[in-house]
Amino acid sequence: MPEKLSLMPELAAVLFDLDGTLVDTAPDLGAAANRMRTDRGLSALPLEILRPVASQGAQGLLRVAFHLQPEDPDFAPMRAEFLEIYAAHICEQSTLFPGMAATLTSLSAHGVVWGIVTNKPGFLTLPLLSALKLPVPPGAVVSGDSTARAKPDPLPITHALAKLGISAAQSLMIGDDPRDMAAGKAAGTRCWAAAWGYLEAGNDPRHWGADQIIQRSEQLEFALLHFNTAQ
To answer: GO cellular component terms (predicted)?
Structure first.
């Protein structure tokens, strides 16, 4: 017989960050930045250089690819160009991280709802999710522009939980960035750090205040199956 989720009775929802947690979007994000470089006669950068900042979106990728900061006069037009290119190639190489399809299916099979809370803008989030053909649809999707404030503010998480009709005390937030832990803690959820995500050098999940660190995405389903003993 299949193993049943031994989730704490009060756990009813799991919220995922998107880029670097649920979905490996770095190849498409990196390709957009490199297309901009090659259009300007620059050589493409190895994905290994761009991957660690993929969770930071246009800001991180433009910083690494062009040494641009938000206060630079060229940043706004370059950001617009980056987003236009990325939107046109939103899901050519992006995939769920290994084990994530099984995790989502397992959660659903045991009556645990799930949702997405991301700082990615909605005009990118929704087409990406549609193209991925998820095995189980999310019960709530909150993008970076769905609420007045984005993570690390807790508002997107409280908004997602309101859409799900579940309290923070019954919920778990999983993400690959300190802002995910900060938002979850402020909202009152438990928080797990996704150490398989996009981590810049020196950005150590042990310093994020997470309740638990999961090293590999393939380990997540098992960790949830043994939630009682994992706290």
So the answer is: cytosol
